[in-house]
Amino acid sequence: MNAAVVPQLTLRAVLLSMVLAMILAAANAYLGLFAGLTIATAIPAAVVSMAILRALGGGSILENNIVQTGASAGSSIAAGVIFTIPALVILGFWHDFKYSWVLAIAGLGGLLGVLFSVPLRRSMIVDEPLAFPEGKAAAEVLKAGENPGQGVKILAFAGALGAVVKLAAASGLRVIPDSAIGASFFGRYFAFMGTNLSPALLGVGYIVGLNVGIVVVAGSVLSWNIAIPIYHAFFLNSDPVLAAKLVGADTADIGYAIWNAKIRYLGVGAMLIGGVWTLFSLRKSLASGIKSGLAAARAGTGTVVAETERDLPMKWMLIALVIFVIPLAMLYQAIVNDWLVSIPMTLIMIVAGFLFVSVSAYLAGLVGSSNNPVSGITIATILFASLVLILLLGRHSAIGPVAAIMIGAVVCCAASVGGDNLQDLKAGYLVGATPWKQQLMLAIGAFSCALVMAPVLNLLAAAYGIGAPTPEHPNSLAAPQANLMASVAKGMFGGELPWTMIEIGAVVGALTIALDEWLKARGSTFRVPVLGAAIGIYLPLELMVPIFLGGLLSHLVERKHQLKPHDETERDRIHRPGTLFSAGLITGEALMGIIMAIPIVVSGRADVLALPQSVQFGRVVGLIVVAVVAWLLYRAATQPTAATAAR
Description:
Number of helices: 25
Strand content: under 5%
Helix content: over 70%
Number of strands: 2
Radius of gyration: 24 Å
Strand order of the largest sheet: 1-2
Distance between the termini: 21 Å
Largest sheet: 2 strands, antiparallel
Shape: globular
């Protein structure tokens, strides 16, 4: 295939990619604030692209590749934003999300991610190729695109199903509750069990698999079935302020109050040690990636190369880097009003951005974008930036935490986009695309996503609340990573934090790392990623249970197809219908959540959509509904017709 003559960067491909990118960014923003996880969007975007472009008369494999490249920015920009920027609201620096600031942080951070990742393409994809699992899977979907109709039907049906269940839940029509939980006391010991009734979380679990599902639910069991009962039985009386708040409270509310005030900080400690360990364990790969990337950049100047090897010109990249850095320096200056501080902040952002884009790209090549611990990278950035800012601003600076979050936000967006860029370039490499066209398309997609992030965040915050529950928003979106970033930044600058819990959590994280290293040495296929366990510790058990159940469904599908161990190509093939169904559930539920927020915000009433109590049912009906969704997911993933169409 001659990439020079096959249409790639067409107007219709660019427009379709931008629309898909913005829709998927909004969906991932909701999912990430709700459950602390985002999903890769390249494969659903590729399937939709193939169907739409075919209906318009045409659509080459390279044109479809351009669409999925730009659309995949929806997950990376959403992750970069929701992991960090809500921390500015949680810290009280903002009362809402400022459009121009969010656009500047997300847009410039995303564009820097593209620029920083370009020199790494040759070393990580061509010279010493890494796996890049989502990139390979996207390439296979593009190659098998002769019959995208079945995939679109799966996506559409699952999307409608996820939307209907979300509309019926407690934040909408209230036909079924959002969760089914039970809590009780056995003497002075607290017991809790329950599950959220979200099809999206079931889909997340299917995509991440049983291994991750076991790890995250085990982390939550540690918090809710071990740590909270121990604290309630033996330590609550030593905390009279918290004990007084719990007098007369419902049993379940007691558990949530202890978790919110104390136990979730175990997850903070585990995430901190996990982020540091991630960087330490990758020190050699990081140095190698940076060295080979710079060598490739020097070797590429002035050389005539084939169309399939042409990256964005290094000269123009350096010019763009300077152009983008200047407004970031001015943005930092607007925060601290001191050039002696804003210039070092900018330098930290440049150095940390390039280093961590390299880390993110390497991790995306090893374990995939969905398992890329960008939050750990961001924690390390905030810690380092805080140490420098303490020297410049003082230990108790009021603006210090905000400045550290701002640096972390730009780096987080850059690292997310950088890893995603290499994933897309891998797919392009396998189908014969032109790299510079993909790089340009990803930049366009990233900036398109940045345009919609502030309105989406403001809508979600007004309708559901973000962060800790309040009387106005008792079931607020947890925003776990943003809460973590706010806690770390605040703690570094003299804020009050339950340091004992954080220290215990760090010990738990260290023990988790030791267990994972032992499993690695034994050659075990089951692993215990510390950041996955930390997310489980930090979030409510009810959110982790459906993720575990989705992972269990994924395992049952593999057994049904008699999958052989380590056969990754076959695994991608058999999971494609289930992955599309899961992506549909996630996107449909998330988009319905955003649509429902509009009448809630306009009316100012959380129950504006609620039906009369005579048609509101309890948790048993909710469990039956989710069981039906799970059965439909399993059926879609194991149907012979679906598997054949996905080949």
